[in-house]
Structure formats: structure tokens, C-alpha cells
């Protein structure tokens, strides 16, 4: 083993196979795995534990930063390992088991998990499994994400380190590890700009807790983001035009405010659209950086980016790792408690850009539940930013399933973000600025600006009849979900 | 005029009648009125403006801290003065006009109004009307609330001061005025404990902006809180037992964490129940203090209380004002932006206690909309505390309308707080601790612990059939609002 990878000689003896390390895990334990939006995830141990589960009863509560890559969630779900899983996932196999009620999934604001662990709810971490690029004299060097790793290491009884030799040692110094103290000794978080460093480059740890070091060389799974298309480009144009108007009105400076963008194709496309915008010296204060962030750094429009993970396509991933030195001064990765912290999101005045599955005429947003019942991925950090930021923008294509599903509905079938937390809604058709408007005013904007023209007549019809029935937020409860029911029975939300 | 009330001689000449002051107001203006939960509200100008509106066209956007007393909202609504109103109200006449779509009401998290004004959305304040106990050399001494007054004064073009001579001069020193700077110069808010003072005792102002000083002597409207009854006492017992268990489990210290309690009968009763609890040296960090807070200060159990307003019954109000010196060191009133600020709510680890109108089997809470459509009061500060606090508790009686309405329903007809923000639900029947549970697990707790026994069979029936249909959050969209529809047509939610 390269002595640069393990700089505490006493730990060299802890190197073992994943199968050996798996013997430290016992049925019923709570496990904290590194990994956030498939970046920096523990790669060997999920597989080794799934192998063990073929021969014996093994059920865990598994907590991560956010989603894992490498099919790990699917493997663990298939093996029956996952009794309880939080706070986020994106795996098709796991999704199926969650929706069948076989895995208890706790869908959680990503800033809250660390806080809850600190207060001992629901349970303490037994073993932390953390991917690292190196172990220095001072601490663990994370890889492409920080997520909840620092909290797991702080609180776990035992630590397993997955030392990934495919990760360049140059990652050292990219991270800024700061965790709030336990209350009541907690002080203000001393961060007043996205570029600030307030902590340490490595995760401090107690070497006595390390029970195993497992060597891996598996890269992160590439992101599954699709390239921009006509609709996402139109959405990007609307958002950028809106931001230009905000600057013109004097409500935002020319450098805007720190940007957050949720994971996924549309948010990535909107950010990508900034390449052609007049904005310069932008900064991001986000939870995840996608390809678009690297392109904006390359184009010079983005001056600095702070996040908790970097999730890239295969090509961009290779480019990034090969050119780390170019990005070193322009990037920082933080614990997700800090990237998403209400204190900082409010102080910095984040502009939050997140994706809606569907939204309704009053601006309530469903980010998670297909048909109101079936979990897609999870709320992620969208609530941290939408509630506490300066501007909360949600984007969606106006229709899905070749037009059979309208993303703009009379009433969302599940509420993740209430109208209180939604300032601006955007589809390829237009942008509805809902700030300072009462519900009846919001409805007109949403219908006329965002809804697909094919669905506008039936949405106007609903709204007009609801207004006749009265109320601050007019609805016809007997018809509020008719569109969803019609899709379930007729495979289209078109009522005629 | 007592020179103690106006300590800037140049301002003495600005004293005039409310009718004279009313001539400074023009159609279409945006007005900021002091007042929070009926405490410290501007009392003379709403009436004078309503009188003027009898003779001429006058429509305003009226922004307050929270609700006004003295029937002011009703008077203004009746006179057609209110084109737009935010962020909270409790007036029956205004409510009717809101629900008829005649007044555009923007229901807003109470921490956000000041932030939006600072960024110029939706409009700047033309005239601020602020109730004061005195005008010192340094600033305005507010009365029984601070609310958004400091923000209004900072941003308004003109200021009208209502000098209320029934308010004791001894109020001076009770307030702590601190406002965050505009971004990007914003620093951490230097408050690390509920007792801390971080600002000035008066609201700084530009004397040039003062166009009128109006003398009043009207007291605040008394609170309309009902005395505890069997149900509210039972709810209090459940909450206190839960908190005792948290202390025993080591998740809370013996002094608990700073307490927030929403306005209203049930929250007041729960706090009142603490008088008989084993807890000592408690502190409150809340938006409003009701009778219960004064009783807890008197009993010695509450060591300190921070809020944005004090709203008391007639008897307690007289007692409080006559004994101000006794409370001087145990109380502070802050701007609502600070009392409800996400940064501070998270840092201090507030235990939030708020009232639900209805909640559903998965823990979503409706705080505002009767039947999903008709506004009752507004979300107030509940979202500020529920989202960012350490523990979010919602309380409600299990039934209303003599048992014809169940407060526990299959799906709430309006979502103010999604299940992500709701830790604990309580009715007189019991307490459901939902932390760390998946939706299907939450439903069992809510049904068996909180629902009135008369409604449990039909709620179990819904949940069981929904589970057969599947999903992470099982629902039957065709039946989700059947209970509400049945109440509309049959005046009962009982389906048999």
C-alpha cells in the first residue's frame, strides 16, 4: 500500500478484504454509508454485505448522504438487507420495495439527518463506511462527496474505510469539514460567503474506532443526466430572462445571488443555459454540482462553486479528475448539513432551482410521489432551499408520457412544497412569477403561463367552477383528483 | 404633551388628530401597520382611514406584523380599504371578504415578510404607522409588540406615530431591536441564547420622515383564549409526559430546549400544564406570549421569555402592566424576523408547539383552510418553527362541531406542513411520535393514538384498502376527501 494513502502506520494492519470487513456487521445494526447523489459512495461493503445476506439473516437501518451509485441500493434491497433506509434514493429495485411497503423509507430534508443523528433520533450509528482517497495524520480525505460522512464518523462506534485508489490524491484539500457543535453550546456558523472555508480539509477521526480498511478502485457511477432538448432549452430561456429582469429592477445584483440547482436533467439544462447569458462572476452554493457547473467554471462565468458532491457524466468525470489542479481554487465540498443549512441558505440569500414532478394552480409542488402514492426518489434538499432561500424556482416540462400526463393539475396529489415556499414556476411554455399574489391571482398565472395549451381549457373550467363555489383557495374536492383518476383508468389526463 | 413621551422637541409640532394625519394617505399606497397578535397595533389610523373611505376611493396594500385588534381589520375591510393584505389576520369580516375573493390575502411565513420588503417584493412601504409608548432621542419605544415595525420604519417614505398614553413609560427597555443587514454584507446573527440582547432598546428612525404624531389611549384588545377544559388538559398531559420521556432518554436536558407556542387556546393550555410539571428553569423563544407565559414566570418555572408580542386576557394585561418591573429582567420583545428566524430557530433547537385544524394519517397538517378552501386565519409563524426547529409538535382536539368533524382524516384538504416537518401529533386521546417512521408506520400510530375512537374504524378501513392498492404513501384518490364531502352534504364526517 502506498504510504501516501495511509499516513498512519498503525492503521496499515487494518487492511483486509470486504468479505472480512463484513464480519463486523451484525443483524439489526444502523449503518452510515458515505455517498451523495452517487458520488463518493461506499462501493465494496454494500456488495459484500449483500453476499453475506445470502447465507444468513441480516437487516440494517441504512443511512447515507443521499443516493448511492453502483447499483448498491438495488443489491442491498434485493438481498433483503434494508429494513429501514434514509434519507434519499434513486434505485429502481429499492423503489419497488419501498412502494410495496417492504422497505421502510424515511424521506427527509437533507439538512436534517445529521441534526437528528446528533440528538439520538431514531438511533445511533453502529458502523460508518466511508470512501476515502487517503488517510492522513489528521483525518480522512473524502472523495467526490462529503454528504453525512463527517457526522457518521463522529458518531459511529466503529469505522470501516474504503480506500479508493482510483481517486487522485490531489483531491486532498478540496473539502472543508465543519460540523455545528451540540446544543446549547452552538455558535453561529461563521460562513458569510460561498467561497469561505471554515473547517478542516479532512474528517477528524479516532483511529481506535477503525476496524477495517478495504481497498477499492471502482469509479463513481456516471450521472444519468440527459442532454438539453427543445423544452429544457425553453425553460432555461424563461429562467434567464426572469433573472435579467430582476437585475434590471434592482432586486438582484449583476452577479445574482448564490445559485442552487437540484439534481437532474432540467436543472442541469437551466444552468447550462447560463453559458449563453450575460451574467458573470456567478457563484453556486448548492448540494450537488453536475456537468453544467464544470462547463460554467470552464467558460469563466462561474467564479466559485460550493457543494456537498460532484456528480458527472463519464466524459466530464475523466476531464475533471485529470484537471483537478485547474479547479482546486474554485471549488469546495462541504458536509450536507452545511451546504443545505437553513442558517446559511437564508443568510446567503440562495436562489433555489428545483424540479417538480407536478404542480397545481395555486403553486403547491409535488416533488416525489407519482400518482400521489408511489415514491420516485425523495424530497432531497429541495425543501431546505425552497423554504429558506431568497427565491424559490421550480421547473418542469408541462407534460409527460407523450402528453398523456399534465404536470400542471388542479390539485397536486402529494404536497412536498406548499405555495408558501414557491415563488416562481416554469415550464417550456412560460414562467409564472407568483410573488405577492393571492391564490386566485396565482391560478390565472399558472394556467396561462405554464400549463400546456392542450390542458388549459379543462384547467380554466375547473378553476372557474371552483371560484363559483368560493373560498380563499377555491377547489372542488369531488373533482380535485379527477385528472389523476382519469389517467389511472384511461391512460390520459385529457377528460374529453 | 408630557416631555417624557416626546423627547425630541422638534417633533412636538407634529402632533395632530388622526383625521388630519389621514390626509397623508393616498389611494394605491402600501401601508405598514404595527401590531402582532392584536398587541401593539396601530389603533387610531385604521379607523380614521375607514372614515375617509366613506367619502372617497381609497384602496391600500396593508402589511402588518400579524393580526390587529380593535376590530381594525373589520373596519378597513368593510370600508373597502383593503385591496391586498398580508401576512396574517383573524378578523371575521375580513375573513369573509378574503373567502369571497374580494380582498387579495397573502398568507405568509411570518419570518419572511421583512426579508421580502428588504428585497423590494412586492412593493415598498409608503407610510408606516407605529404605535409607541414614547419617542426618545434615539428612537421609537414600541408597546406590546415589535412585529415588523422596525422594518416598516426603516423602509417607509413617511412615518406616522401613534403615541399611546395608556402604555406605561416603563415599557422602555423591554425591546431589543436588531435587523439583519442587506445582502451580501449580512453577518451571522450574534444571538446564541434566548436571553441574549443583540440590538437597541428603541427603533432607530429618521425624524424627517415623521409626518404626524397621533395621540391615543386605547388599550390592546384582550386575547380571546378560552380556559383549559378536559380535552386541552389531556393534551397537555400527553405533551408533558412525552417531554419527560425525552429527558429520561437523554435526548433533552432537564431544562428542555427553548419553547415556542402558537397563539390560541390549546397551545396556551399545554404551556399552562407545565405549571404542574417537574420542569424548572425553562426558557421560551416564541413569537407571542400568552397568559400561560406570565403564569409560568410567576410560578418561577419559566426563567426567561423572548417573543415578538405579548397578548393577554384583560385581567392578566392589567396585572402585567402594573407589575412591569417584576418582569423587566425576564422578558424581551424582538422583531418577528428575529423571533422566527430560521438561523436562530435551528441554532437554539426550538421545541415548536402549534395547533392543527386537521391532520392526516401520514402526518400532513392543515393549519389554515376549513374544508380545504376557506381561510381561517393564516399559517403565521408555525412553518418557521416546524421546519427549522428541533422538535415539531402539532396539537388538536380529535373532533370539532360536537363530533361531526374529525380532525384526523385520510388526507388533509390543504397542506400547510408536510409530513417532513411534523414530528409529533397530539389529541386528547394520545400522542403519536412519528420520528424515524415511514408513512405506513406513521399511519398506524396516528390512527390508534390520535383519532377519536368513533372514527377509528372508518379510518382503519381507508388505510387498509389504500395499502392494498400500494405505494410508499398509500391513498385512494377517489376517496381521499370523501369525509369532507360527506360533511358538506350530510353535516357529519361519519360515513355510516
From TrEMBL, chains A, B:
The keyword Transferase applies. Residues 10-214 form the Acetyl-CoA hydrolase/transferase N-terminal domain. One of its GO terms (biological process) is acetate metabolic process. InterPro entries: AcetylCoA_hyd_C, AcetylCoA_hyd_C_sf, ActCoA_hydro, ActCoA_hydro_N, NagB/RpiA_transferase-like, Succinate_CoA_transferase. Residues 319-462 form the Acetyl-CoA hydrolase/transferase C-terminal domain. Pfam families: AcetylCoA_hyd_C, AcetylCoA_hydro. Keywords: Transferase. The active site is at 287 (5-glutamyl coenzyme a thioester intermediate). CoA binds at residues 377, 381, 401. One of its GO terms (molecular function) is acetyl-CoA hydrolase activity. Belongs to the acetyl-CoA hydrolase/transferase family. This is Propionyl-CoA--succinate CoA transferase. It comes from Herbaspirillum aquaticum.
Amino acid at each position: 500500500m502506498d504510504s501516501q494513502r495511509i499516513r498512519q502506520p498503525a492503521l496499515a494492519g487494518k487492511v483486509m478484504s470486504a468479505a472480512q470487513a463484513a464480519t463486523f456487521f451484525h443483524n439489526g445494526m444502523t449503518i452510515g454509508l458515505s455517498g451523495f447523489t452517487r458520488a463518493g459512495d461506499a462501493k465494496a461493503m454494500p456488495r459484500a454485505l449483500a453476499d453475506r445476506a445470502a447465507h444468513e439473516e441480516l437487516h440494517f437501518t441504512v443511512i447515507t448522504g443521499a443516493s448511492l451509485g453502483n447499483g448498491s441500493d438495488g443489491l442491498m434491497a434485493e438481498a433483503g438487507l434494508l429494513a429501514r433506509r434514509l434519507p434519499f434514493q434513486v434505485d429502481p429495485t429499492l423503489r419497488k420495495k419501498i412502494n410495496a411497503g417492504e422497505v421502510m423509507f424515511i424521506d427527509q430534508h437533507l439538512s436534517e439527518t445529521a441534526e437528528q443523528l446528533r440528538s439520538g433520533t431514531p438511533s445511533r450509528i453502529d458502523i460508518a463506511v466511508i470512501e476515502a482517497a487517503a488517510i492522513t495524520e489528521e483525518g480522512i480525505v473524502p472523495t467526490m462527496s462529503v454528504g453525512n460522512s463527517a457526522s457518521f464518523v463522529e458518531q459511529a462506534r466503529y469505522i470501516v474505510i474504503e480506500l479508493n485508489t482510483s481517486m487522485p490524491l490531489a483531491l486532498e484539500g478540496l473539502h472543508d469539514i465543519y460540523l455545528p457543535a451540540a446544543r446549547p453550546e452552538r455558535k453561529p456558523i461563521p460562513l458569510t460567503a460561498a467561497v469561505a472555508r471554515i473547517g478542516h480539509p479532512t474528517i477528524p477521526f479516532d483511529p481506535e474506532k477503525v476496524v477495517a480498511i478495504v481497498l477499492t478502485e471502482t469509479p463513481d457511477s456516471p450521472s444519468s443526466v440527459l442532454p438539453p432538448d427543445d423544452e429544457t432549452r425553453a425553460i432555461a430561456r424563461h429562467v434567464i430572462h426572469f433573472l435579467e429582469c430582476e437585475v434590471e429592477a434592482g432586486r438582484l445584483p449583476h452577479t445574482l445571488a448564490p445559485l442552487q440547482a437540484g439534481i437532474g436533467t432540467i436543472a442541469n439544462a437551466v444552468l447550462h443555459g447560463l453559458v449563453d447569458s450575460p451574467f458573470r462572476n456567478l457563484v453556486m452554493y448548492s448540494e450537488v454540482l453536475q456537468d453544467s457547473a464544470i462547463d460554467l467554471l470552464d467558460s469563466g462565468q462561474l467564479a466559485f462553486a460550493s457543494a456537498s458532491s460532484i456528480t458527472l457524466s463519464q466524459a466530464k468525470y475523466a476531464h475533471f479528475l485529470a484537471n483537478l489542479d485547474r479547479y482546486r481554487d474554485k471549488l469546495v465540498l462541504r458536509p450536507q448539513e452545511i451546504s443545505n443549512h437553513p442558517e446559511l441558505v437564508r443568510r446567503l440569500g440562495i436562489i433555489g432551482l428545483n424540479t417538480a414532478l407536478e404542480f397545481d394552480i395555486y403553486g403547491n409542488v409535488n416533488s416525489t410521489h407519482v400518482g400521489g402514492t408511489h415514491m420516485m426518489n425523495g424530497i432531497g434538499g429541495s425543501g431546505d432551499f425552497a423554504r429558506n432561500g431568497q427565491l424559490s424556482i421550480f421547473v418542469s416540462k408541462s407534460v409527460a408520457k407523450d402528453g398523456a400526463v399534465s404536470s400542471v393539475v388542479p390539485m397536486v396529489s402529494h404536497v412536498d412544497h406548499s405555495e408558501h415556499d414557491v415563488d416562481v414556476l416554469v415550464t417550456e411554455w412560460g414562467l409564472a412569477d407568483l410573488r405577492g399574489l393571492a391564490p386566485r391571482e396565482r391560478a390565472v398565472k399558472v394556467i396561462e403561463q405554464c400549463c400546456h395549451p392542450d390542458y388549459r381549457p379543462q384547467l380554466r373550467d375547473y378553476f372557474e367552477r371552483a371560484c363559483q363555489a368560493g373560498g380563499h383557495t377555491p377547489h372542488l374536492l369531488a373533482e380535485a383528483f379527477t385528472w389523476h383518476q382519469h389517467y389511472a383508468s384511461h391512460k390520459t389526463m385529457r377528460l374529453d
